[in-house]
Specification:
It contains one helix and 29 strands. It has 404 residues and is mostly beta strands. The chain is globular and about 50 Å long. Strands 3-28-27-26-25 form a five-stranded mixed β-sheet, with no helix packed on it. Strands 20-24-23-22-21 form a five-stranded mixed β-sheet, with no helix packed on it. This is Lipoprotein.
Length: 404
């Protein structure tokens, strides 16, 4: 089987005033200022896997999004939001977190930045309800506690003692408990940038946010490591159950992939639940499938993602495959009932399956496809799908935040 990879994965308004000659005609009236269009989307577009452009656009009727008024970042930056605050983490490309505020029209106004230690690779920002943000410093094995108002670090949580064979357990995605008093952080225990030491399995550190102490680390060997940095997420559903996902990418054959969960009211893995995607038939897909990368939890147990179809991989070189092979199919996943269903949107690449959102009644997929690059839509109520992008982009959509 040929291998694919997931590793290679627009803002203030400008006005042009036109001034005519002075006139005494009583019908001459001042030209009204143009009305700014409310911006509902904050997005990143990636160009040549080198530059990420942070910008905004209004809605799905805009048709085209370019990067002419965008903020420029190194490849790998991601946005996180609470209210009208948007924090951008450098990720593997740097050591800063940058603050932006959405103005009355939804445009981004740049604020302060905070710099962590060199090579910290900050990312995976989780907001609390008291003005704090918990920032995973993936290359330092620490969690920074950030005052969002002042953009100052107030404390750190050191996870180094939980590392395997080095002093960094490689913290990945993090999620708050339903009660907001505990932070659950995936420990990836990496051997290389994208793989863990064999046999590590799912490890999650449970941190008491009152004491900033790790209460315990829970482990599950049914899957590979969970919470791959900047590639998968964890979420708490309406029932208070917490889900983590593993791509199963530890050199295991067959894959030890799938969703595992921690049930509400417990701090242990649910031994009665393991949803292995690679072993679950997908309605509408007649070829074997594997893992998903980034995904979107839409509520009521439903996840939207793109699933890898290995037989559609034509290039052995991962860099080529990530941009040339259309081998990921959009799907609807029910994590409670353990079902996978094809969505009739076109195939995309591994670089083009990281961007999702919900706008009104539609699920938005940011993808690069043979049919065009940009935002495609799916209506869960009617099943209607856009055969080509309803909004095209300059560069590949790499992340999306939606504001009603």
């Amino acid at each position: 089987m040929k291998k694919t990879t997931f590793q290679y994965m627009a803002l203030s308004a400008m006005f042009i005033g036109t001034f005519g000659l002075a006139s005494c005609d009583k019908n001459d009236e001042p030209t009204p200022s143009p009305v700014e269009t409310k911006q509902h989307f904050v997005c990143f577009n990636t160009v040549d896997q080198k530059i990420d452009y942070l910008g905004t656009f209004a809605d799905l009727s805009q048709k085209t999004v370019d990067n002419k008024k965008a903020f420029e970042f190194a490849f790998g930056a991601y946005p996180f939001a609470q209210g009208n605050t948007v924090l951008v983490a450098d990720g593997n490309g740097g050591d800063k977190v940058h603050k932006f505020t959405r103005d009355a029209n939804g445009y981004l106004v740049r604020g302060e930045s905070v710099t962590f230690g060199q090579g910290s690779a900050p990312g995976e920002i989780t907001f609390s309800n008291d003005g704090k943000a918990y920032v995973v410093l993936s290359q330092r094995g620490k969690i920074s506690i950030l005052d969002v108002q002042t953009m100052k670090q107030t404390a750190e949580i050191d996870l180094s003692q939980y590392a395997y064979k080095d002093n960094n357990p490689d913290p990945g995605c993090a999620v708050l408990s339903k009660s907001k008093d505990k932070l659950y952080v995936a420990l990836q225990q990496k051997q290389t940038r994208y793989t863990a030491y064999p046999g590590i399995g799912a490890e999650v550190a449970i941190i008491n946010l009152k004491t900033h102490q790790v209460e315990k680390v829970i482990k599950d060997d049914r899957v590979g490591f969970v919470g791959l940095f900047r590639h998968t997420i964890a979420f708490t559903d309406e029932l208070g159950d917490m889900y983590f996902y593993s791509l199963g990418m530890e050199g295991n054959n067959p894959l030890k992939d799938g969703f595992v969960r921690i049930k509400n009211g417990t701090d242990e893995w649910d031994k009665d639940y393991h949803f292995q995607l690679s072993k679950t038939p997908a309605t509408g897909i007649d070829k074997p499938h594997g893992w998903i990368l980034y995904y979107y939890y839409a509520g009521n147990g439903i996840v939207y993602a793109c699933v890898n179809i290995p037989s559609l991989t034509m290039h052995n070189d991962p860099a080529q495959s990530s941009i040339l092979d259309f081998n990921y199919q959009p799907v609807r996943i029910d994590v409670r009932n353990k079902t996978i269903e094809k969505i009739n949107l076109p195939l995309t690449t591994s670089m083009g399956c990281f961007t999702y959102g919900k706008w009104k009644d539609e699920i938005v997929f940011g993808m690069t496809c043979k049919e065009g690059t940009g935002y495609y839509t799916y209506n869960p109520a009617t099943g209607a799908c856009s055969p080509k992008p309803v909004v095209t982009t300059v560069g590949v959509p790499s992340s999306l935040l939606v504001f009603e």
